[in-house]
Design goal:
4-stranded antiparallel beta sheet, alpha+beta, 36% strand, rod-shaped, Immunoglobulin-like
């Protein structure tokens, strides 16, 4: 799995680092992305064109519905954007560097798409009738709606009494602007470490590591990790602690030590008595002579 993710990342980085100019109009867009209703989603997108290199200020990027180019979901002039998308979309990358990534927030259950990217090369600020424009209708994205977020995942090893123990909670999401918040149902005597990373284009992971030293009192306690997503939607993952107790051999060691001590004392007394008796016999023989 790690190798596959690495290959996807490397491929996407190569695409983004490719010069904007090429022999033809090309775009790379994820075809399908899961989107949580009420949250947001980032659509990774990169493109290249056969014309001369131009700065971002001389390019116009549009996103439209595949059925009709006039149905804009993003444009720099928001008055031209469909009302139900107005204020909910923005470009994240620089068009001059071939990055056309799109963010859609406050996802509605009807925001399925497909949505396509269109680029227009405007060599001057007033060049509104340029012929150098292209809609990438073969490279559109479809959003697969999720009514409820997926449950987080927990990873851990068996806890042992008196030994450091940690549980990691993972929650995946599609929008780094609004990361899910991970919360634990634990007390204050714990340490929590959080981390956020991109797994592959369009897919991120938030993780939280809960660390503490379990005691006998923690045995059979339930630990819960709650993920709160943008839009106030939540999901949980639970586990029960089964704390392995440290082996206590005092009930064996103490009696054995006492017994060994008594044997040693008794043996010492016997030795002294035997030695004293032997010396008495010698003295008796000498007195008889």
């Amino acid at each position: 799995m790690g190798t596959l993710i690495m290959k996807k990342n490397i491929t996407y980085l190569i695409i983004l680092s490719t010069p904007v100019c090429s022999e033809e109009w090309k775009a790379s867009v994820l075809k399908n992305i899961e989107a949580l209703v009420g949250s947001c989603v980032v659509v990774p997108c990169s493109f290249s064109h056969p014309k001369e290199s131009l700065p971002t200020s001389r390019m116009r990027g549009l996103w439209h519905h595949s059925r009709d180019m006039k149905h804009l979901i993003y444009y720099e002039d928001s008055t031209m954007v469909m009302e139900n998308f107005r204020g909910r979309t923005r470009l994240l990358g620089e068009l001059g560097k071939g990055n056309c990534s799109l963010e859609i927030k406050e996802i509605k259950d009807h925001d399925n798409g497909p949505f396509c990217f269109r680029i227009e090369l405007a060599r001057t600020g007033t060049d509104t009738g340029t012929k150098d424009k292209f809609s990438f209708k073969e490279d559109c994205v479809t959003l697969q709606m999720l009514t409820n977020p997926k449950d987080p995942e927990l990873t851990y090893k068996d806890p042992v009494e008196g030994h450091p123990f940690s549980i990691t909670c993972f929650a995946t999401h599609t929008c780094p602007t609004f990361r899910p918040k991970l919360k634990w149902n634990t007390g204050t005597e714990v340490q929590i470490t959080e981390r956020h990373r991109e797994l592959h284009p369009g897919f991120w992971e938030m993780s939280s590591v809960l660390s503490f030293v379990p005691t006998v009192n923690d045995d059979h306690k339930e630990v819960t990790c709650t993920a709160q997503f943008n839009g106030e939607k939540m999901s949980t993952a639970k586990m029960t602690l089964y704390v392995k107790r440290m082996e206590n051999y005092n009930h064996i060691i103490i009696p054995v030590a006492v017994a060994i001590g008594l044997v040693a004392i008794f043996g010492g007394l016997c030795f002294l008595m035997m030695k004293k008796y032997s010396m008495f016999n010698r003295l008796s023989r000498l007195s008889r002579r």
